[in-house]
């Protein structure tokens, strides 16, 4: 009557096989979607079901990308935008956390500026572009600032409320050992809010892309946002769509990186 | 000699709408080396009382003195209602938290930590994180953390409530033995009548709304020398249990009406 | 009579530069022709042309270079220039310092805040510089990275010695002492097909009458503008510029009018068209050599003038 | 020895007084910040420490607003933008929830389109503006679509993961009573995810503002975004700043309304 | 007559890395009207076993039959390890959840719900939400919900573990009395030896990794007629308690080594 270990193992192998089969089926479907999307696009464009001028076509886009990869210019644009995005992201996140720490340290200050924070937060930051140009001049600084400003307030608010949400009992433990305010922050508040801080990263990386692209729309000579604007200006939708695709891919990669970081840090 | 004395402690919690009177006019004194328990329904102010004794809360009225001096914080060890180990620190780091905060981590302290962890059977998980431990192990680690700063007075807030029955009985034995060994003065808060009888010299039964001392029971001397597990099996245990049970039951009925 | 036909028009921006259009709307010249014109502003040449191509509008008012771009990228239904509205560039050279004795050579060694790459203002700007013997790449520092709407505030916050500006900003700057108009790109460039009403070939073929009515109304407005003073024009178009003071509108109209920016008639002739091509070629943005007859319909304009 | 009730009451009154004093002090500080910000602005502008052309001044802005309020035109612009924002918000939120429900219903589908969702989510939606014009034409539809598109994917992702995060044991309870899939969704999944859904409202209302303002930058005749871009066109920074202020105030009001709704619904 | 029988039930949980064998080759049969308890260390597969009996999980091997028939879902009442009252429904709505799902809410059902709620002392909170209730009240409401569909077989997964001691003792009495009154066949999972003895006719002790039946204890007939509270006070209670305690202790030591 006793089940031999080999049957346990066999059942497990069967289970693994089922999993693998399912995974393969999912990948096949993903490929089907991918292939049919692009071939439908190509076909519609060739058969003029859609206006090839406005919607270009996958072959045109890949030709363009190939040409731009051969002369290396696309990498320059990608590099510029990536650097700006990372800089904007870091700046926004770090500033936001510092601001949140300041608010935590001075609870009265936080009560005083609360309504102003609400207004600043609700403000659609993309409308501030021109003011940033006035303040920082037309150049990289403005673009990076745009990438940062879009995330700093929301980071402040989220991280500050994480600080406030830390279980009072951790603080009690520390105070029972005679800890001072700085020690409480360092030993309990900050590490306990770590998961929230990491999860704002995920939001901020997306926001920084928005900020940087909008910034590049306003001032730039290089970068993927510039390519989009320039493409529109000379009515080259192939260039526009190619840039959009590159943006989508890199934004997705960056997002995945941050997500992987999150999983790693929060688990460990 | 009186070690700890509470003089007419009253505490109110304020909110915008009104106030809750958590405890009212509680006075008592505890001798050095004594083990005292507080029994009472939920919300009768047990945690509030411990927080006041620990100096984490200033009572709206009354004073606390320890050895005739106003209370100084660092010679009190306070073990909260749950373990509150810091999940981002290893067990060793958690246990060394007190010395770390007080800025005096020495080799000696580290050795002492290892020694305490060995005594309570946690030597194998020194480098583990709290999430890798079972509930009982976590409670033991929290106890070790509390003992590290060598407090003269120990405050234990339902240290065993989150445990299953067997683990709880074992840990009661361990704690009782350790406290006797280190000659600590201890205050235990619990919901469990059996636990209170099994561990303490004196049992204070509190009533709620507002929290007051309703009755005091002395545990007979011959029970005190037994381990908690043995006490629970002792014939006299049941009598005391019944008495306290009825007292509590009556308090509850009163408070409902 | 019949109920009016609705015509959707997308204009590239809201500007006093397009005064005759607003005159036609305000004076009811379209209604006289039995047309009900719905005007939308689609900020920027790209969006305007996109709107036209995706049938969001029947007629677009936009720089004629876009029709060349569209054609060169292989449009199946090319966009045809029908009625010219402005015939010179509309930008001015504004200097930070007052320069009564301005000569174009003064630009040498300066920092020049130009319009963004790929658009007509930038191309005309560079063309004029070259005509004046200035190499925009060598002889001065050319800033070309700022979006159209943000050029004035970039200059106002201290970027550049010279700037290429549209009205009314140039006049505002002069009035506020922020800058001084020292030259007009419109005067230097000569006649070019600058801003033109255009439509898709298919629309033209299907609605020749509407197009003719539309052009006739524009022609009437153009004549009206020629025959009236800047002040009178300003009065008429003011509802389209609610937030701008009347005297500023008048100043700007006067400036454009006196330098002949408003086309006298809707005909986009061969000569103007051939002026456009070297400008685009110089800028490196001429994707293909396109004949006048391919993208311009002068017949309608000539018909309505009879 | 017994404390008389009157002393309890007295202590409570003292506590209330302290609270009130603190509240008053906070309000005074808020007023000081408010007043000094605007008077500093006014002064700098008058003394030409800052360029009044670029930074305008509070009096100029209030004059303008007063004039526009008198002739009623500002209310028209506000109404247009508000309607667009609310429409974009509702559309984005409802679509997002429906998509999430679809994914929950077809778990395999959700696995298949997962990578596409990541890419769509990471994509900075503001770059899609012109493509939307192609699809929907110049007009309110495009603007509302912009306000919706910016929030729909993130709503889908967040709500779907809330659906997945619902404690399996609620489902177990229902299944033990023999519930079908639809009943499980209706009785457990949806109500248990309600707090998350409400909290996406807060994010979405902000995003919709961004989308609508960007949309109005692209095509518009009316609305606060139109006023900004028109203000630039005629270099009227007073108009630009006045519009920005109105946007900030209304966005903040809308955000507060949603937050109040959240508190009410989640408590109740 | 055999009511429920488990035949060589084995269950494995699979993951990508490997599998956990939760229970192995468990066979048993329960008579109609019997009250059976499962005692065992954490992770020995108690919840898994109940889920299988409830039909929420298909075992990798073995079959479950009820009254010689393959199991049909709706005549089983399953009370989960925590109360899992739906926080967005009132107590009444929660209790009526079963009929609601089964689409047969009648006036009769509603009256029955009120009646059950009265019996367990919840008539005053019928319109309240679960968050307004204490832990014990919630457990009672969950029990009422389980009883509403009139199941022939009741599965109770540690129904009293989240309660404090006094509440627990009271609820044990109530449940035991109700089940006797309604003549239910019942399966109780618990960590608490005393509870198992006090409530059941048969106690199965399980061992872990993988879960198997280690030993079966019959509760003496004269204890079965007492209420759980009285049983705990009975002299014979302690003997059985000690026996089972030792058995469990040994199992635990075994599983550690
Ligand atoms: N921070 C607080 N603010 C307001 N009221 C509080 C606060 N803490 C406790 N109370 C109230 O004071 C009373 C006593 O609370 P306390 O936590 O001391 O009770 P307890 O005896 O420890 O209860 P339990 O057994 O549930 O832990 C309760 O009525 C409680 O609601
Ligand atoms: N969904 C699951 N996936 C994988 N493993 C599981 C799952 N549920 C339970 N297990 C594993 O199966 C074993 C038995 O789990 P089960 O929950 O049945 O134990 P239990 O006796 O109810 O424990 P407890 O007393 O803690 O409730 C454990 O080792 C557990 O880790
Ligand atoms: Mg407490
Ligand atoms: Mg279990």
Explain what you see.
The complex is a heteropentamer, with 2 copies of chain A (268 residues), 2 copies of chain B (257 residues) and 1 copy of chain C (306 residues). Chain A is mostly helical. Chain A contains 11 helices and no strands. Chain A has helices spanning 5-46, 52-55, 58-70, 73-105, 107-122, 129-136, 140-165, 168-176, 181-218, 224-233, 237-267. Chain A is flat and about 75 Å long. Chain B has 2 domains: 2-72 and 167-256, Rossmann fold; 76-150, no CATH class. Helix content of chain B is 40%, strand content 26%. Chain B has 10 helices and 10 strands. Chain B has helices spanning 46-54, 91-95, 97-101, 107-119, 135-148, 165-182, 193-199, 221-224, 228-233, 235-256, and strands spanning 2-14, 19-31, 35-39, 61-66, 69-70, 76-79, 153-157, 185-190, 202-207, 212-218. A 6-stranded mixed beta sheet of chain B has the order 6-7-8-3-9-10, sandwiched between helices. In chain B, strands 2-1-4-5 form a 4-stranded antiparallel beta sheet, covered by helices on one side. The longest helix of chain B has 22 residues, at 235-256. The model of chain C has no long low-confidence stretch (mean pLDDT 87). The interface between A and D is large, with 43 and 44 residues. The site of one adenosine-5'-triphosphate has 11 residues of chain B, from strand 2 and helix 1. One magnesium ion (MG) binds next to helix 1 of chain B.
What's the short version?
The complex is a heteropentamer, with two copies of chain A (268 residues), two copies of chain B (257 residues) and one copy of chain C (306 residues). With 268 residues, chain A is an all-alpha fold.
| First-last Cα distance of chain B | 41 Å
Rg value of chain C: 19 Å
Quickly give the structural class of chain C. Answer: alpha/beta
Largest sheet of chain C: 5 strands, mixed
For the largest sheet of chain C, list the strands in their spatial order.
2-1-3-10-4
Quaternary structure state of the chains depicted: heteropentamer
Shape of chain C: globular
CATH top level of the largest domain in chain B? Alpha Beta
SS-derived structural category of chain B: alpha/beta
CATH topology of the largest domain in chain B: Rossmann fold
Order of helices and strands of chain B: EEEHEEEHHHHEHEHEEHHH
Mean pLDDT of chain C: 87
Membrane topology (chains A, D): Multi-pass membrane protein
Protein name (chains A, D): ABC transporter permease
Main location (chains A, D): membrane
Family (chains A, D): Belongs to the binding-protein-dependent transport system permease family.
